[in-house]
């Protein structure tokens, strides 16, 4: 834990804070409160893939003692056939507020999401990052595994 | 299309062929016929994320005229908040049988999965690959986007 900060699941009440912090990361665009609530409902409805018993919403926020959102991120679990029909975790959309940088919140968040994935049974957890962030993820225990390729609609 | 080959969704009848072809890629391990069928049922139950109306099992196989499985792959769709609550596609677990190499089946499969993702509305589609496969994915229209990092349980 980091003194003064707590981590919890995203809820429907987090609309402004979550939309605001994601702007650190990239274009958020047009997401109404209603659409946000629909998406949180969808996230809450996700089960551990390939099971019907354990719910698994892996979208978390870190907040300070005043309730201000300081960081967010999530881990998607993918049910594969390979590796004994294993689970692979994908960490996505890590954002730390500029107001809260320099407090190791990024590492705290990655450590927590990694723990969530390993406890769910993932045989591996992956994420894609900018080359300049490789040393940060190495400090979190990650190693280089390959090249991310993309194609975009626009 | 590639003459003599067709592409279709994975079905429960594909147990031996799919398990066999995935061994080209990595360790498959202990996946019983019953477990395979459970996983195909799970895949068949997936909806386009954040909707309750369009089913979306994105696991496909390419087969030859005799019904032999020549290639497999899938695209997972992730509902984000960023990019107007957009969809991001993740192409995973591409395998082409050694018996069918040299026929451009890999490119055929990637083109098809890319089309599935774009038609579903993805603003981008990503995949991770070994550095030696970058030129292949560039031929499929993909560009380098970042570094894949991983942590493994073992």
UniProtKB/TrEMBL annotation, chains A, B:
Top class in the EC scheme: transferase
InterPro entries documented for this protein: Acyl_CoA_acyltransferase, GNAT_dom, GNPNAT1-like
Pfam families on file: Acetyltransf_1
CDD domains: NAT_SF
Catalytic reaction list: D-glucosamine 6-phosphate + acetyl-CoA = N-acetyl-D-glucosamine 6-phosphate + CoA + H(+)
GO molecular function annotations of the record: glucosamine 6-phosphate N-acetyltransferase activity
Keywords annotated in UniProt: Acyltransferase, Transferase
Pathway note: Nucleotide-sugar biosynthesis; UDP-N-acetyl-alpha-D-glucosamine biosynthesis; N-acetyl-alpha-D-glucosamine 1-phosphate from alpha-D-glucosamine 6-phosphate (route I): step 1/2
GO-annotated biological processes: UDP-N-acetylglucosamine biosynthetic process
Catalytic activity, EC: 2.3.1.4
N-acetyltransferase domain residues: 5-154
Family: Belongs to the acetyltransferase family. GNA1 subfamily.
Protein name (record): Glucosamine 6-phosphate N-acetyltransferase
């Amino acid at each position: 834990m980091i003194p003064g900060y707590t981590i919890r699941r995203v809820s429907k009440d987090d609309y402004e804070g979550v939309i605001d912090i994601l702007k650190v990361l990239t274009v958020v665009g047009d997401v109404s409160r209603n659409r946000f609530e629909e998406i949180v409902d969808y996230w809450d409805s996700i089960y551990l893939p390939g099971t019907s018993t354990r719910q698994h919403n892996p979208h978390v926020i870190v907040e300070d003692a005043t309730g201000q959102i300081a960081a967010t991120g999530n881990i998607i679990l993918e049910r594969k056939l390979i590796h004994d029909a294993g689970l692979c975790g994908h960490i996505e959309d890590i954002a730390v507020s500029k107001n809260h940088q320099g407090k190791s919140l990024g590492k705290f968040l990655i450590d927590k999401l990694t723990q969530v994935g390993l406890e769910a049974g993932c045989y591996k957890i992956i994420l894609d990052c900018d080359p300049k962030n490789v040393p940060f993820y190495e400090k979190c225990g990650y190693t280089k595994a390959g090249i991310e390729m993309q194609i975009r609609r626009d």
